[in-house]
Amino acid sequence: MKQNNITTLLFICIYFLSRGVEAYHHQLSLDNDTRENILIEAFGIAEGGHVKWSVQNMTSQNPTAEIYFIHRTTPADTLVIDVDYELCPPIGTKYAWNEPQELIISSDEQGFFNVFLLNCDKTPISLTLDLEMYNIVNGRKSYLPIGLTQLPTIYGVFSACYFVLLIVWVFGFIRNPVRGKKVNKIHYLMTVLVLLKALSLLFESIEQHTIKTQGNAHGWQIAYYIFAGLKTLFFFVIVALIGTGWSFFKPFLSDKDKKIILAVIPLQILDNIALIIIGETEPGSAGWITWKDIFKMVDIVCCAAILIPIIWSIKHLKEASQSDGKAARNLNKLKLFRQFYLIVVSYIYFTRIVVYLLDTILTFKITWMGEMFTELAALAFFTIVGYKFRPVEDNPYLNVDADEEDAIRTIEMQTQSASA
Fold first, then answer.
1. Within the chain, how many helices (H) and strands (E) appear?
2. Is residue 355 within 8 Å of residue 373, measured between CB atoms?
């Protein structure tokens, strides 16, 4: 049964990856859709940019139904998808569905250009829509929103930073003949995580550059999703393992620790599937907003889940410092895990809330700043955690003796008995 479920999930991923959505050169298919207004795309466009669309294979159960295209422009990303717009009846310029259009954006129209399909009678309609949106940058077409044209460079620079970080980590600590003696299993997992992060950014840079110049990813999104999915899965599992103290102050996992790890893994698999579906489905498709909300909720649940073992470790270390003769040593570890807790909470708060709010106020020409701040926070997180838990001789958090292990085991057994 489990194998069948895994196979089904793999087929879902392969299906969406093979569809190959063409970035900002879209083809949207609707089948008996009765929605009143459909957001086709929100695109940051500057003066001189182009918007083209045409409709084929249009059928409607009501031949007299009024079906129009309209557009609205806002100076900042006001989360248009989440806003309940009252667009019917249409006000201002409207375009009949059976007339292909090509708009050249004026200075008054530049901004976040939102294209809507209106079906005010809610008549079931079926159609195929071709939509192409691009900016003119230095005399060339750029299929990325004007505020995201810097993304290929940003991702490329951060990818190079992680490769440098990986080299320093491997040759400065992992393969160092002196420091290497303190390397634990978790350090090898951390090495793999940094490599996956560097590769995911590299392929994301290539993907965004290909979209920018050609209008579609030409399959590069497959490599990106593979490495990004593995990176995210490793990230949450490693943070959870560090939070449990595994390989640092106890070389074992309690039953509660195992439950957290086993909960995070399927949640992250679901999270990655949601990410793929969101990335490879047109915003105007039915159910797109639902999958977007699922992705947000699963991501928040995973973030909350990895905080639980850190809290348990702080509690166990606090009790261990009072129950054995190594109070000072355990207090040092307690201090480290409290710092780790604050680092993780700060990282989650900044990347999930602060950047989210920042994106809503950034004007259409500087939306790249949200991604840049996210990657800066991630680089700072990786660097700080790697430094705190680096395998060096004078790091007191990597030394575990039999008495200390027994004390931790005893405390966890007492905690489990009390909770039972």
1. 10, 9
2. yes
Q: CA dist 402 to 250, 331, 406, Å?
A: 10, 18, 6
H/E stretch holding 258 reads: helix 255-279
DSSP 146: G
CA atoms within 13 A on the CB side of 67: 24
Cα–Cα distance measured from residue 336 to residue 331, given in angstroms and rounded to the nearest whole number: 9
Please tell me what DSSP assigns to residue 105.
-
Buried b (16+ CB within 10 A) or exposed e, 251-272: eebbebbeebbebbeebbbbbb
Q: How far apart are the C-alpha atoms of 245 and 232, rounded to whole Å?
A: 20
Give the count of alpha carbons within 13 A of 329, CB side only. 17
CA separation, residue 255 to residues 118, 252, 411 (Å): 55, 10, 13
Terminal Cα distance for the chain, rounded:
31
What pLDDT, in 10s, does the model give residues 303-332?
887 788 778 777 776 776 666 555 556 666
178 or 29, higher pLDDT = 29
pLDDT value for 181: 64
The 10s digit of each residue's pLDDT in 13-29 is 444 444 444 446 777 88
Cross-strand pairs, 112? 44, 74
